[in-house]
Amino acid sequence: xxxxxxxxxxxxxxxxxxxxxxxxxxxxxxxxxxxxxxxxxxxxxxxxxxxxxxxxxxxxxxxxxxxxxxxxxxxxx
Length: 77
Known about the structure:
By secondary structure, the chain is an alpha+beta fold. It has one domain. 55% of the residues lie in helices and 13% in strands. A two-stranded parallel sheet has the order 1-2. Helix 2 links the parallel strand 1 and strand 2. The relative contact order is 0.12. The model has no long low-confidence stretch (mean pLDDT 78).
């Protein structure tokens, strides 16, 4: 089936990112990242991916800078 449909075969070779909110699940999934020689599997927390998409690639650095500049209370409120 994949050989007959080029769109499906290219989708099968695309990167797969599995999002979770479970620390144990993330740890288990990350063990398989190195097993896939092509590097197609990536696992991360869903909130980290949401922050990256909504706030930009440098969201963590911006958060840490704000926390260091004005105290964590201002960032969280």
